């Protein structure tokens, strides 16, 4: 009953989650196989005529093969489908050929256990190599569940190999173990999938809030939030101050008015790409302040080095015009620089950088101003 209820819940989730629809459908099918297997196991225990039936072992094998495939797709959405299908076909061949050469209901359970062992062991390896930072606790639960289900395939195999019996009884420990696994896996599988899906949804929302979707630079919210944390850790003697570069694209309205807003968007992306070419990766924060203005926050840098870096950014953008078909459209920027002072805030630095940017634009644009110094383009 629990397996059927879980299948119904997964079906409803599949209707609202297109990104994980394939995974949800696989688990739903696995839960249906598991529920049918459990339902048929009750009369099978008392009916001598049904003991030779392959229905229950086949449903068990199908349930675990589908579950293992779903776990692989959940943690490795880009996993090659051909490889997964090949693994499924190989497992089914092991089950079918094994029963062909070693018939009997108990033997069928042994081959189903072998397929279960191989598929879940493979799924555990794939999940461990996925390097998925999402829902780390759910990932540990998923790996543990795969290992548990893989080991659960050993008892029927070892029992048949060590004691070729045909009787099926609840007195056998591995039968009780399998019944326990059948009862627990629907809930645990559903918890794993729901946990990972919610974690990915939350990360997607955080990413949308932290990243400017047009340019790929950080958002203004992220810039202020992270910037304040960086500045609060800067008030240490002997350490270079943080520096903020406020960059404005010169005559940006001309691009929109002449060639359209689509080209203007491409120019903004081009500028961000040029900035990334110059600044060091890792601790540097590149954010879009608004419109055609960008901020570059350098956590710890000597004032002179910051000025030289700003000049390299300006020169790199000026020397790399935006290519629009056969046209090379020149792009230039003006930059104002502000340095962090003790107990200063991001807003204070931005105000200071904005004042210097204003002076750079009114001095002819395409130049850098830091404190009282002006770097004139050459």
Q: What does this protein look like?
A:
This protein has helices at residues 2-16, 21-46, 55-75, 81-101, 105-128, 136-152, 154-162, 173-210, 220-232, 252-259, 261-278, 303-318, 346-362; strands spanning 243-249, 285-290, 293-298, 322-324, 327-329, 333-339, 368-370, 373-375. It has two domains: 2-210, Rhopdopsin 7-helix transmembrane proteins; 220-375, 2-Layer Sandwich (Alpha-Beta Plaits). The protein is built from 13 helices and eight strands. With 378 residues, the protein is an alpha+beta fold. It is 64% helix and 10% strand. α3 packs antiparallel against α6 and α5 packs antiparallel against α7 (154-162).
Q: Got a strand count?
A: 8
Estimate percent helicity. Answer: 55-70%
Which structural class should the secondary elements be placed in?
alpha+beta
CATH architecture of the largest domain: Up-down Bundle
Question: How many domains, in number, for the residues?
Answer: 2
The N- and C-terminal alpha carbons lie at a distance of 78 Å
Q: Give the ordered list of helices and strands.
A: HHHHHHHHHEHHEEHEEEHEE
Mean pLDDT: 77
Low-confidence stretches: 44-52, 164-170
Spatial order of the strands in the main sheet? 2-3-1-6-7-8
> Biggest β-sheet, characterized?
6 strands, mixed
Report the total helices: 13
CATH fold node name of the largest domain? Rhopdopsin 7-helix transmembrane proteins
* Residue share in β-strands: 5-15%
Shape: elongated
Question: Roughly how many Å is the radius of gyration?
Answer: 31 Å
Task: Name the CATH class of the largest domain.
Answer: Mainly Alpha
